[in-house]
Specification:
- The chain has 2 helices and 23 strands.
- The chain is mainly beta.
- It has 3 domains: 76 residues; 92 residues, Sandwich (Immunoglobulin-like); 105 residues, Immunoglobulin-like (Sandwich), CATH 2.60.40.
- Strands 1-2-3-4-5-6 form a 6-stranded antiparallel beta sheet. A 4-stranded mixed beta sheet has the order 10-7-15-13, with no helix packed on it.
- The radius of gyration is 35 Å and the shape is rod-shaped.
- The two termini are 69 Å apart.
- The model has no long low-confidence stretch (mean pLDDT 87).
Amino acid sequence: YVNTRLNNRWSDNGKDFESVLTLMNKNLWDALDFSIEFSYSNRDESRFTFRFDLNYDNWLSAGMFAGKNGEQNYKLGVDKVVDLKDITRNVESMNSSRVKVITFVDENSNNIYDSGEKLVDNVEIKIGSQTEVTGDEGEAYFFGVPNGILYDLNPKIRKPSYSLGSNKIAVRGTNTGTIEAFIPLKAMVTLSGVFIVDEKLNLSNNDIKDIYDNTIIKIKDKEGKILENTIPDETGIFYVSGLFTESYSVEITYLGDKLNIPPLIETIDLKYIEAKDNEIVLKFREKGITLLKN
């Protein structure tokens, strides 16, 4: 619990000798720091000194020094760094910054906060040893963030409908008043679709069900990677969840033999719609599949 340091020094070709013994303790009883120092020097007629320093809860500082011929010095005062935005927060150094984190729904996927975009609460964020959770306004404050250190922000998103996507967020203290760190969250959206069969085809319910059973819907990203393969249910409805507000390619292929229908490939832009799916409506016609609503 106590660190001990002993320094011995010879100088002036060995004519002078000085020895300093220091006892130090950090966070005694979680609040009290102290150090005691004894020193001896044969310079100046074998001088002995004693020093004691105490710091309580990072705000009250006290100390005393006793030297030769009864020389004594005492000190008592407040040694505390505070942030006027919140004086209750613990700030260890003046060489630090305040960080305001803002979490928002990046509705247009430009990684920039645009006026009117929804702010997200209940996101847990950690900077160094500090952990905060964004409030109702999507904001969280960090105090005393050391300058010059790059911190990776790895937010824990407690709401299942949002994701960080492929973004990596970092912040560095720059000795300014307040650093604003925006974290764009990607809304997880759902694409729903419904197929309609043209009445002019005069198909029975079994024929229509067969068409649905033999229709494959492929969702591809911008690079052409297949993200989802699905088929419609017996009513012609399908759902694809876990998508972002980006552009996707929808490829619809009929594999049956009742109709000679070429595949349909369409590019759709998904949008963030509060409590609502992105919906498309498609129609089976004699000459192919038509996209009625996007």
